[in-house]
Specification:
Blueprint (H helix, E strand, L loop, with lengths): L3 H23 L14 H22 L12 H14 L2 H10 L7 H15 L14 E4 L6 H11 L3 E4 L3
Parallel strand pairs: 1-2
Helix pairs in contact: 1-2, 3-6
């Protein structure tokens, strides 16, 4: 039997997943060169990938003992944070992230552009609301990061790298 708190969490999660799917589908609605994902096969594939990841995340959380508590999570925020990390992942880590995030069917060349379009669509100046997402990359200060990773983080996610002493 499901508790009322569990039902509220499930409903909230479903609404968040539906909103995320709608946003991914409509990304780039503004027109022009940027509208690469509106009603395209890649847009639909990214929508499916994000929805599958969101459900996996919810199922994992719902199976834990924390279900009796009120919980709020944003599948979009979590996916964006992991997509930023995916930008710099290589080899086995990249392959594992691609599998977990369900990015397998989305073209690599368009993946991060799609997320950039979604974030732009959410934060249009004429919107009646403003969504603030704290996109930031944190990296070991003694490590030398590739310029491509740093510039892509800024380009697609408006995210700067903050050097941190993890030792």
């Amino acid at each position: 039997m499901c508790s009322s708190a569990g039902l509220r969490v499930a409903k909230l999660f479903c609404y968040s997943a539906l909103i995320l799917s709608a946003l991914v589908t409509m990304a780039g609605v503004g027109g022009g060169e940027k509208a690469v994902f509106k009603n395209t096969q890649q847009g639909q594939l990214l929508t499916q990938a994000n929805t599958a990841f969101a459900w996996d995340l919810y199922k994992r959380h719902a199976s834990s003992s924390a279900v009796a508590q009120n919980v709020f999570m944003s599948p979009l925020s979590i996916t964006v944070a992991l997509a930023m990390t995916y930008l710099g992942a290589r080899e086995q880590t990249r392959a594992q992230m691609k599998q977990v995030l369900h990015f397998s069917d989305v073209e690599e060349a368009q993946l991060h552009r799609a997320f950039s379009d979604i974030l732009s669509e959410l934060n249009k100046p004429e919107q009646a609301y403003k969504l603030y997402m704290a996109n930031r990359l944190f990296g070991e200060k003694s490590y030398s990061f590739r310029d491509e990773f740093l510039s892509d983080g800024r380009k697609y996610y408006s995210a700067e790298l903050a050097p941190v002493d993890f030792r």
